[in-house]
Amino acid sequence: MNNTPIQQPVSKFDTPPCVRKTIDKTTYLVRIHFSETAKETLQDKILRLLREEVRKM
What are φ and ψ of residue 9, in 5° steps? Predict the structure, then answer.
């Protein structure tokens, strides 16, 4: 088990967005974060991923 302490957010705006998904009787909570040093926009990344998928077909 991971014993890393969980840092509490300073305000509600400091909490990362998250997605909650329940599959069968297990609930998964996925926190989302974005790099502040990224060189491509989210739109550019999605287009790149789609192009790669089409290229593989």
Answer: -65, 150
